[in-house]
Amino acid sequence: MPMADGLHILITGASGFVGRALVHGALAQGHHVTALVRDAAGAPAGCDALVHSLGWGEGFKLPSGVDAVAHLAQSRAYRAFPGDADEMYRVNVAGAQQVLMAAAEVGVSRFCLVSSGTVYEPFVNGFAEDAPLAPSGNLGATKLAAEILARPFANLFPVSMLRLFAPFGPGQVGRLVPDLIGRIERGEAVTLPAEGGGMRFSPTYVDDICDVMLTALRESWSGAFNVAAPETLTIEEVACAIGAVLGKEPYFERRSISAPSLVPSLAKLGRRYDLARFRSFAEGIAATVTAGR
Asked: Which of 102, 109, 136, 163 is the most exposed place for a label (fewest CB within 10 A)?
C-alpha cells in the first residue's frame, strides 16, 4: 500500500539487478524515486533520472528534496584482479565517498549503504556483524572500505550498512542461481563434492531484500546488518527445487571440491525485522522461472 508520507529516495545503481527491483518496490510503496544512472536510457520507468559516473572525478549534487539515499552502485568488473582493481576502487570506494558527501551537503535524513557478505572473506571468523574483518578478495575489500568511510557520517544521519547474501530473482544473469537454472534446463551436470549436498548458503529473493532496504530507510536503521533469508540450502537442494519447477530431474556430477558453509548470523536483523516475511526458496524460484518464460 502506498505510504502517505513517502520519502524522496535517491537510488544509485538503479539500472542493476537489485537496483531495478528496489526502484519498483519503492514506487509501489508510494516513494518518489530519483535514479542515479550512467545513461538516462537505463533508468527504470516511473522515476526521475540523474546521470552521473561515480568515482571518475566529476562532482555532483543531489536533486532538491532528496531526503534518503540507497547506495547500491558497484563496479561490475570484479573477476580479473588486479586488472579490475582501479575501476573497483573508483566506483566502490571513491563513488561511495562522493555519494556520502553529496548526502551530507543537502542534509538527508537517512542513508542505506548496500554492502556484501564478501566482507567476511576468507570466511574463517564466522558471519556475525561483530566478527573481525580482513577480506582477502578485492570485492570484499572495497565493500569494507566503503563501510568504513560511511561510519563517520552516522554522526550526521542514520547510516544502515546492509550486507547482502546470495540475492536471486527474475532478470539476474551471471550468478549461481541463474547458472543452475540454465544447466538444469539444458540437461548439463551440476557439480557436487564427493560426498554431501555441496555448499550450504542462503539464497534470498530480491524483492525480500528490497523490502529490508526500504524498511531500513523508513525506520532509520543505523549500523551493519546481514541480510539473507533464514532458510539455508545446499547446492543439491537448490538444484532439486529448480528441477521441480522446471519439471526436469537435475543431473549431478561428483568431484573433489570443497563445500563451504556460507550461512550468516541473522540475530541482529531478526531484532529489527520479522524473518518470517522472507519467502521460501521454492516460492522465489517459482516466481523467477515463471517471469523468465
From this structure: 136
Per the structure, the complete domain to which residue 45 belongs is given by 8-167+206-228+264-278
Phi, psi of 253 (to 5 degrees): -130, 130
Q: CA-to-CA distance for 242 and 197, rounded, in angstroms?
A: 15
Let me know if residue 213 belongs to a domain: yes
Residue 259, in any domain of the structure: no
Q: Is position 178 within any domain?
A: no
**pLDDT tens by residue, 61-112:** 898 899 999 999 988 766 677 878 988 999 999 999 999 999 999 999 999 9
* 118 vs 138: CA distance, rounded Å: 9
Give CA–CA dist 275/192, Å, rounded: 29
CA separation for the pair 193, 259 (Å, rounded): 7
Of 270, 263, 283, which Cα lies nearest the Cα of 205? 283
User: Angle of helix 138-150 relative to helix 95-106, nearest 10 degrees?
Assistant: 20
Task: Supply 16's cell numbers.
Answer: 542493476
Domains in the chain, number:
1
Rg of the chain, C-alpha, whole Å: 19
| Inside any domain, residue 15 | yes
In one letter, which amino acid is 225?
F
Q: What are phi and psi of 81, to 5 degrees?
A: -65, 135
Instruction: Give the largest CA-CA distance in the chain.
Output: 58
